[in-house]
From TrEMBL:
Listed PROSITE patterns: PROKAR_LIPOPROTEIN (PS51257)
Entry keyword Transferase: no
InterPro entries in alphabetical order: ABC_BtuC-like, ABC_TroCD
UniProt-recorded name of the protein: High-affinity zinc uptake system membrane protein ZnuB
Transmembrane segments: 7-28, 48-73, 85-107, 127-150, 170-198, 210-230, 237-257
Native species: Bathymodiolus thermophilus thioautotrophic gill symbiont
Compartment(s): Cell membrane
Membrane topology: Multi-pass membrane protein
Gene Ontology biological process terms in this record: response to zinc ion; transmembrane transport; zinc ion transport
Key words of the record: Cell membrane, Ion transport, Membrane, Transmembrane, Transmembrane helix, Transport, Zinc, Zinc transport
GO cellular component terms, semicolon-separated: ATP-binding cassette (ABC) transporter complex
Protein family per UniProt: Belongs to the ABC-3 integral membrane protein family.
Amino acid sequence: MEDFILRAILAAIGISIIAGSLGCFVIWKRMSYFSESISHSALLGVSLGLVSGLGLHFGLIVVGVIFAILIVVLQQRKFLSNDAILGIFSHISLSLGVVILALVGSANTDYFALLFGDILSITNQDIAWIYAVLVLVGTLLIVFWQRLLLLTLNEDLGVASGLNKLRYQLLFMLMIALTVSVSVQIVGVLLITSLLIIPPAIARVFSRSPVQMVLFSMITSVVAVAIGLSGSMHYDIATGPTIVIALGALFIASQLFPSKRLT
């Protein structure tokens, strides 16, 4: 097996597990628009990483964390609705990213790959970064599972139990920012949200418990990414859109089954 294919498979599996598990919380918390907004901010992170010379992942994490903190702070002020705040920051960061790339980008900058992914360009360093994030996010989910789940499914009860809502909200957003930072090369800036919301939406049809939904979501994500990656290499087409098409086909197929989903 060619090295670049092996790296692509390893990256696909790692990112599928991260996105599949965190995506369940995105669905439960009804934060699809937040994940869409923070994925748009990823283009600004990419451009700043390239300008600073510190690398793509560093820029993505810095911008993602700043973006998440600003959103949480403004949400606490309750001056604007959540969707208005997210829309403002999403479009500002996306536009800034485009402008900065236009100013500093070179002829070698692959804009199409940034927007829609290029999994075959992944390096060994990227693989190490993906699995480092997988270990970190997995550990955080295991350690804080009960508290995150309680705040997600019954926020009032969680707060009454003494949990700090703001602290866990920031923790969750940090994990989303890390997920976005490793997903850009798989599906690109414009399609990251699909990895976070479609696998859990499929898994929800067949799940009777939160743990089942997380497991089915990860399996669905791995299968869809494997199908998309195979189709991308076989037909020589963009990886990101191919993965999303595979997810879409699985979602449509899942709707033909009787639902066992959580209420």
